Amino acid sequence: MIISKEEYLNNLLDSFCKYEEKLNILSNKAYPSDIVKKFIENDLKMIITEFKKIAHNDLKNNDDFFSDKTILANNIWDQGHLQRIAKAVANTDFKSHPLEIMNVFRDLIKDIEKNDFEILTIPREEMNFSFSEIWFKLKMFLEKELNMTGFTVNKKFIKLTFPKNHKNNLLLSGIFFHEIGHYLVEENNFADKIFQKIDFNSDDFLSLRKCIYANKGNQLGQVELVNIFRRCYLINWIRELLSDILAVYTVGPGFVFSMFDFVINSTNINNFYNDNLSNTCSVSHPRLSFRFNLMLKALKELKIYNELPELLKEKIESYQDAYANSNNQQQNRSGNIIINNINYTVQESKFMFQKLEDIINDLTPDMLAESKQLLGEKNIINKNKLSQAEKLAEQRIKEVIPPNELNNIAADPIAIINSGWYAKFLYKNSLKKRVGKIDGKNGDYDLNLLINDLMKYSLRTSRIQRRWQG
Amino acid sequence: MSIISKEKINNLLTSKAENSLTITPILDNEKQIGESTIDLRLGTKFEVDMRTRKPFFDPLSDRRPIETFFQDTYRNFGEKFILYPQQLVLASTFEYVKLPDNLFGIIFTRSSWNRLGLNISSVLQSGYAGVINLELVNNSSNPIALYPGLRIVQLILFSVDGEEREAYFSDSISKYVANSDPKLSSISEDEDLQMLKNKFPINS
């Protein structure tokens, strides 16, 4: 060994002590929820104290070998689980907490998930959203492998990152619903369940063999094919599409318009002018026109599409057409994937992507039906919520009144979110006339700001009103 | 000019006519609407003034925006907010108010809060739309616990005689339009400041 066991352990203990110092600082911060403080003071400190004890005991021990416990603690440390949790906690605070929309998610997840949870919101500079659980699996691992008991926070910690500049942009909140979709897909092994429904003996599936080369003369049978697509392309696409369906089913057109806003935001001006909108497939995502098509199917399946005002339907169809007719060319690449020590080369091609879309098309009825089941009827958007959204936009936002209630009854949060989009598309001109401040000097910025302010207020007060009236 | 009575307030609130009175949400109509006043509740967001390194706020200087002198915070309904003696805190009503063009309003602290050293008074222009900003200052020598959701101010409405005027929120120079949170002072946007800068430069 180049360095001694003692040197290694001293180094490890030093890292643990620095982490403990960081926890002491973090425990003095104010958080949107008291649970976070409790989590740092009790659970994270308990883990690091235990890790320090393990390393210290090993240091006193004259054996040449590390103890099993030290190896486990070291592996957890090396994998960065604890550091990631501390980083998430350090980056969450009152100021960056998008309170109003978080309460909508909180109520939604509480209704679907059995486990208790806490959401840590983390603002980021870049235009990126993500949603993941960071604590529960580690907790279960520590309980099982290191016999650690006495954790006080027995709930999931969901890390939600979002673009800092869009903290109060409720018009973009549909994207959050897509990210919650990812979380639900992950927590319920939803993508795997759908993947199992593929007919692995079908010609479509077996024809994918043409796109894969097994290096060093290894066999490429049905089993290998299933293993490959369980790791890339198909499984990822299913994940993405399920998240889209879950978002459409909860927030309806509100998600579709957020998505349009989001993709336009990331489109280069040259691509926009040359009808070259990015509509390509990748290992992680299907092409956008395929996604839009599925979103439209989901809206139609809910029988709410025809309820939309003509202008909104035209908007959806024009986006779908623009992407479907894009001149954007697919760059076909090849990539390697190693499964059971065998290296496979996947050659992307128009043929392969077409087959993948055909396979997914066959799965669509199952994806739609099971998404419905997962959400439960109460959490699925329906004609009533949309009709409420339409009234809220016309009777309230258009009159510069927040869409928080109708006839003294607190409005539904999903109706509130959709009412913002209705108002933006249908009443832009009347709002401009009514509110002199929206003079167009800043484009739609002032209009969006006004609508977002009214929606934010409404989400906050309608929740209180519902509780008061309940 | 006359004070609007309970009956008329209720008629205006239930009227379907465009440009009528809106106060939303009224959680308890019976308690909140009095003979000639409307009780409004304390909202959930607060802007608390802070001592900073800079000795003072200067509306003529844009080097240190007013936002840096305040910290925002939130309390749920029923959750305590402590207001310390002589501390300035900007809060707002829970209710959003939109006045028609022929009414203007005055708000006062409810007398029970007045007696604890909390005095608020403000004028609402015709056509105003938004939550009402409440400049909270504790004039007593003891801290006061405030709770969002409590009725804190009363609104008195007056009719305005004369020809129809442009609604406050349609006036593009209005500084406070359709606010949904407590709004910090927009004194820096005052047009007189530009006049002072241009006509009376300090080094002339």
Automatic annotation (TrEMBL), chain A:
Protein name: Uncharacterized protein
TrEMBL record, chain B:
Keyword tags: Hydrolase, Nucleotide metabolism
Gene3D superfamilies linked to this entry: 2.70.40.10
Pfam family, one: DCD
Any single biological process term in GO: dUTP biosynthetic process
SUPFAM superfamilies: dUTPase-like
Superkingdom per UniProt: Bacteria
UniProt cross-references to InterPro entries, sorted A to Z: dCTP_deaminase, dUTPase-like_sf, dUTPase_trimeric
UniProt GO MF annotations: dCTP deaminase activity
Keyword Hydrolase: yes
PANTHER family (UniProt xref): DCTP DEAMINASE
Protein's recorded name: dCTP deaminase
Annotated source species: Halanaerobium saccharolyticum
The organism's taxonomic lineage, starting at the top: Bacteria, Bacillati, Bacillota, Clostridia, Halanaerobiales
